[in-house]
Design a protein that fits this description.
With 138 residues, this protein is an alpha/beta fold. Helix content is 30%, strand content 32%. A hairpin with a 2-residue loop joins strand 2 and strand 3.
Length: 138
């Protein structure tokens, strides 16, 4: 803010992939004696709290990104998180593949980094933020 005017400064942003906030538990049920496998998916409240504290500590805007989801599905996820009361995310984006996000990184000057699972970390280069770093508070 300069001289009472609202600043046009763009807040720094961190992208968090959906895989970082979901807990997936495989389940097996028997239907007519045949094993049927399915997956129970829940939100990881600890991770959501961690990202909330991270955003507050450093003043970042948080963006949730999902791979293989539609924009409508991502909007519903953001609304679910709002209803939970633990939503650190201001924005959402749907990408078809990880490569779509990686291709966009050079054109996002406000982006501090991407928090994702370690298996995909090398794809982001210097923009990758490991969950362990956030846990330790650095």
């Amino acid at each position: 803010m300069r001289g009472g005017d609202i600043s046009n400064e763009v807040p720094m942003r961190v992208i968090v992939t959906l895989d970082c906030i979901l807990d997936r538990k495989p389940e097996m049920k028997k239907v007519l004696g045949i094993p049927v496998f399915k997956e129970e998916v829940t939100y990881n409240r600890r991770a959501l709290s961690l990202f909330w504290n991270f955003a507050q500590k450093f003043g970042y805007s948080m963006e949730i990104a999902g791979f293989g989801y539609t924009r409508k599905e991502m909007k519903e996820i953001l609304e679910d998180l709002d209803n939970l009361g633990t939503n650190p995310f201001n924005y959402y984006t749907a990408y078809q593949t990880v490569s779509d996000l990686v291709g966009e990184l050079p054109y996002r000057p406000e982006l501090v980094g991407v928090v994702d699972i370690p298996e995909r970390g090398l794809r982001y280069g210097g923009k990758f933020i490991d969950l362990g770093r956030i846990n330790s508070g650095s």
